[in-house]
């Protein structure tokens, strides 16, 4: 049966096209998917996962990652921190019946009219060696004692620090004139890296919203799974939190009213100086009066069905 038997216009996008587009974006805009401290400008080999970059990005000297402040060492009396990187290394979309990737057993088989999302991310954090900590500890202790002595008036001068192979800049120890002191990263030789995979399953549906007379297109989350985090209760707690954030915080912002999808073709032609003599509109085919699903998620594609409405004139 032709796709236009119950609609005037049909369009579809295959999952392969979407996934290929995502890969192109990741190569051409790597800074959207990689976040790290400035240390990585000269130490790109320490990223957890090597990422491909389009030659045009290198020639234009566009950023390869988005700079972040070092991870602060909580409780330290001076603003020191650790270098780290955070990378989204893979993103894939799979439409029913599902053949791009397999779902975890917890999510089961990809049901009719469902789509699945797979994300893989990696994070690397510096772990200072014992030798460096042993060098810095006397300096930290000396600084704390000096601050205590200044506070109770035992001394009027700040006690100088102890000489070490690594001494943070003086600006890191005396930031009284700064509102937001800059965190100084400890020297890094290697990172401890770990990666996680997240899977989500969802679908589209039409429905109403309290207080509105319109029909809205909504994206719904059916299930979410993070693969193999231990202990199991911690995994469940994180999954529950992410599910709640998506259902109550993010997806409600993506609902679209039907009227936003109606294109007034007559008005568009008038703006170009052409008069049709009739009112012609293009809008989504109704569910289930015109088609059973719209958009339809099937045959590895997302399909949209539209109908033309012509009114007025002779």
UniProtKB/TrEMBL annotation:
Name of this chain's protein: Uncharacterized protein
